[in-house]
Specification:
Blueprint lengths: L4 H5 L13 H16 L13 E5 L6 H11 L3 E5 L1 H5 L5 H15 L3 E5 L2 H4 L9 H19 L5 E7 L7 H6 L2 E4 L5 H12 L8 H10 L5 H12 L1 H4 L3 H6 L10 H10 L1
Helix pairs in contact: 2-3, 5-7, 9-10, 9-11, 11-14
The structure holds adenosine-5'-triphosphate (ATP).
The site of adenosine-5'-triphosphate has 20 residues, from α3, α9 and α11.
Length: about 270
């Protein structure tokens, strides 16, 4: 329940259009992952799909978003695990959880198991590796191989990492398909800004939005997202607590380019 809880109860639907940019990643996934999960009968033998996918790239670039969206598109159950919930377990507990995770996922096919920061769980660092992390790693490999060797199983494991070079070599080999998720382009940043601005009253015109996309060169999607959220708070920051008690939503002033310029300085 601890590791599967979120996945079982609060499935968050992510549409393909919610992901700005990353066009080639999306088309790769549609062909290689999503259609095989939806129509397994078409993808057998030499056409059988990869069972392990590694997403790597800078933090905050949408790796989790992609994994969730793949699950939505493939109509698959999404199981997300947090390595820290595994590594802090008593000796032997973590392996049992991994075993349970794969068993529950197999019982809910088609299913996707998403492991964020997979490097911290399955790293190659052997110097300080104790017996329990080795056993945990082996448990994973057994299940990854099990899923890969059985065509009937509609189970996909997606790992995400900012440090692919830290990953255990044997584990990396299991992630047959590896995809780099880069920082967003100017166009993608613009899309993210536009999407967030749709949710608030603002006075920005196309030129100003374009300028913001330009100014956020080097920002990740998550950075752009928090910049917009910060700027969107500006009208509220002007209010005293008493004013905030009584003001109606439609009376709030619009968010302006000046708020964004301030946010760029503050963040
Ligand atoms: P980490 O490596 O830190 O786990 P990540 O690559 O998994 O990060 P996400 O958690 O998917 O990144 O992205 C964080 C947030 O940033 C998302 O919830 C979303 O709001 C925004 N974001 C990032 N990339 C994009 C994108 N390409 N399109 C739209 N929103 C994005």
């Amino acid at each position: 329940e601890q590791i599967l809880g979120e996945s079982m109860h609060d499935f968050k639907h992510v549409a393909w259009e919610d992901i700005a940019g990353l066009e080639s990643a999306k088309s790769t996934f549609l062909e290689a992952i999503i259609m095989p999960l939806r129509r397994p009968d078409l993808f057998t033998g030499v056409r059988s799909p990869p069972r392990g996918v590694l997403l790597f790239g800078p933090p905050g670039t949408g790796k989790t978003l992609i994994a969730r969206s793949i699950a939505s598109q493939a109509k698959a159950k999404f199981f997300s695990i947090n390595p820290s919930s595994l590594t802090s377990k008593w000796v032997g507990e973590a392996e049992k959880l991994v075993k349970t995770l794969f068993a529950v996922a197999a019982a809910h096919q088609p299913a996707i198991i998403f492991i964020d920061e997979v490097d911290s769980l399955l790293s190659k660092r052997s110097g300080n590796e104790n017996e329990s992390t080795l056993r945990l790693k082996n448990e994973f490999l057994i299940h990854l191989d099990g899923a890969a060797s059985n065509e009937e199983v509609r189970l996909l494991v997606i790992g995400a990492t900012n440090r692919p070079q830290e990953l255990d070599e044997a584990v990396r080999r299991r992630f047959v398909r590896r995809l780099y998720v880069p920082l967003p382009t100017k166009e993608a940043r613009q899309k993210i800004i536009e999407k967030i601005l749709r949710q608030v009253k603002h006075s920005l015109d196309a030129t100003e939005i374009n300028e913001l996309a330009e100014l956020t060169d080097g920002y990740s999607g998550a950075d752009v997202d928090s910049l917009c959220r910060y700027a969107s708070m500006a009208p509220l920051r002007l209010l005293t607590p008493d004013q905030m008690e009584v003001i109606e939503t439609h009376q709030l002033p619009a968010v302006t380019i000046i708020d964004f310029k301030q946010a760029l300085r503050d963040i």
